[in-house]
Amino acid sequence: MIIGIDLGTTNSLVAAWKDGRSVLIPNALGEMLTPSCVSLDEDGTVLVGRAARERLQTHPDRTAANFKRYMGSDKTMVLAGRAFRPEELSSLVLRALKADAEAFLGEPVEEAVVTVPAYFSDAQRKATRAAGALAGLRVDRLLNEPTAAALAYGLHQQDSETRFLVFDLGGGTFDVSILEMFDGVMEVRASAGDNFLGGEDFLQALVNLFFERLKLSDSLRRDSHFMQRLLAAAERAKRALSEQTRAVLSVEHKGKPLSLEVDEALFESACATLLKRLRLPVERALRDANLRTVMLDNIVLAGGATRMPMVRRLATTMFGRFPAIDFNPDEVVAMGAAIQAGLKAKD
Ligand code: AMP
Questions:
Q1: Distance separating alpha carbons of residues 329 and 332, to the nearest angstrom
Q2: For the packed helices 122-134 and 86-105, what is the interaxial angle rounded to 10 degrees?
């Protein structure tokens, strides 16, 4: 059995091609998203996923996150006094996903299609393959993330010339890719992005708004317990604002509740500069591909942060049409990876 893996900066997912369709595979907690976090327990046990992410605050010296950013570099991260290379940390995530897939499918899994950003260099791709090998997975095929998202939307089934733009806003990175299908060959025509722009920045904007509106002293930012609770409350409010028009951000400080009601318009105005920054890579990719928006056949949203209505509105106005949203944006890359795994198994 070949599985498809979206090895992400924030979260990773695994899916398989089963009975003619892509099926997402839940982890032991029953969740589709496994945080790309690794932590070493005091007795040497390796924790991966949510359990590891929860230790980011409590055991920062034993926990690692965001290692995808360093794939292919010589940087190591020290956990419990031991240095780990980014591909070693990634392999621990892959190993956990492999085990989840085997438990779900009831058969051994030896091979995977793993997705990587379109801009990944040879060194970064090599490190990703090495991570697979360390996890006991053969990775013959690395698939570009935007290509995977486009596969989920059936780009490979189009017989005429077709162009998709994939707008991928994750936790910490923004990637725009223009894909073209011509004569049965899929090509990345242009890619652009911002490596330091993602859902986390929208969260930070909400935190800053809270400080500003409640006139809180900046010294409170050094109170890590307070900040931890504020960040959790802000993340909840941010997600609530994807479903409803207002949310209350409330945190206790010295026994007193501090709260701020945020509506859509206020959240959007706090994110004005971030929204402006989202435009630049889109314009660059279109320019590089020598295309105008009317020449695009489909706009595909990927990445959890594209659930934010303000981001969807921006995409709609930029492209003059509604983007495709048949799939959950945080799952679409894994769904496409499983399609590629299915195509490969057929060969
Ligand atoms: P990803 O890298 O695709 O897992 O994206 C993770 C980012 O998406 C994080 O910044 C999350 O806060 C954000 N996110 C996930 N779900 C939602 C939601 N319902 N509303 C707003 N942001 C979300």
A1: 5
A2: 50
**Ligand 1 centroid to residue 305 C-alpha, Å:** 4
Q: Which two tokens stand for residue 114?
A: 């793993």
| Catalytic residue check, 283 | no
* Dmax (CA) of the chain: 66
Amino acid, res. 307: R
Nearest ligand 1 atom to alpha carbon 33 = 4
Residue 1 CA: distances (Å) to CA of 13, 19, 154? 16, 13, 22
Ligand 1 centroid distance, CA of 188 (Å): 25
Contact present, 96 and 81 (Cβ < 8 Å):
no
Q: How many residues does the chain have?
A: 347
CA atoms of 254 and 296, how far apart (whole Å): 54
Pick the closest to residue 93 from 171, 5, 173 (CA basis): 5
Ligand 1 atom nearest to 8, measured from its CA: 2
Establish how many alpha carbons lie within 13 A of residue 149's alpha carbon, considering only the half-sphere containing its beta carbon: 35
Q: How far apart are CA 63 and CA 103, in angstroms?
A: 26
- Note the pLDDT tens digit of each residue in 261-293: 999 999 999 999 999 999 999 999 999 999 999
- For a ligand 1 pocket test, name from 307, 311, 325, 332 the mutation site with the most ligand atoms within 8 angstroms of its C-beta: 307
Give 67-96 pLDDT, tens digit per residue: 999 999 999 999 999 999 999 999 999 999
User: Is the CB of residue 242 below 6 angstroms from any atom belonging to ligand 1?
Assistant: yes
Beta strands in the chain (DSSP E): 2-7, 11-18, 21-25, 34-35, 37-40, 46-48, 63-65, 77-79, 82-84, 111-116, 138-144, 162-169, 174-182, 185-194, 246-253, 256-263, 298-302
